[in-house]
Amino acid sequence: MKLRYQFVVMDMGGDYSAVPVGEDAKKFHGMLKLNETSADILEQLKEDTTPMKIHLHLKEKYPDSTDEEIAEHLVKFLNKLNHEGLLEHITDAERRIFIL
Q1: Residue 17: which of 29, 3, 30, 32 has the closest Cα?
Q2: Exposed / middle / buried, residue 64 (Cβ in 10 Å: 0-12, 13-18, 19+)
Q3: Helices within 1-100 (DSSP H only)
Q4: Where are the chain's structural domains?
Q5: Are the beta carbons of 3 and 77 closer than 8 angstroms?
């Protein structure tokens, strides 16, 4: 899976946001307000990846977090992105993690 649109993530003193760039700014009108972990997930989704690869990346970056904490945040954020139509190239296996 990956992001449907190209975003640039900005860190403004610990407050993170993402805005679409280029032609995608004409397709997606708005901005995403993020926390640090969500910003990191969004960065991972710029390239085609899997939830497991993102989970492993987050586990390495946040070693004090449990697998359950990481999975909970990851699934919640991926569900939100999917609900808003911001993900593409979702495999059938990946689709099973989404709450429809």
Answers
A1: 32
A2: exposed
A3: 24-27, 36-44, 51-61, 67-83, 92-95
A4: 2-95
A5: no
Strand order in the sheet with 7-12: 7-12, 15-20, 32-34
pLDDT tens digits, 49-99: 999 999 999 999 999 999 999 999 999 999 999 999 999 988 888 877 765
Model confidence pTM above 0.70: yes
State the burial class of residue 91 (Cβ atoms within 10 Å of its Cβ: 0-12, 13-18, 19+): exposed
| Per-residue model confidence as pLDDT tens digits over 13-40 | 989 999 999 999 999 989 999 999 999 9
Instruction: Please choose, from the candidates 23, 20, 17, the residue with its C-alpha nearest in 3D space to the C-alpha of residue 9.
Output: 17
For 12, phi then psi, to 5°, come to -110, 75
Contact assessment for residue 7 and residue 18, using Cβ atoms and an 8 Å cutoff: yes
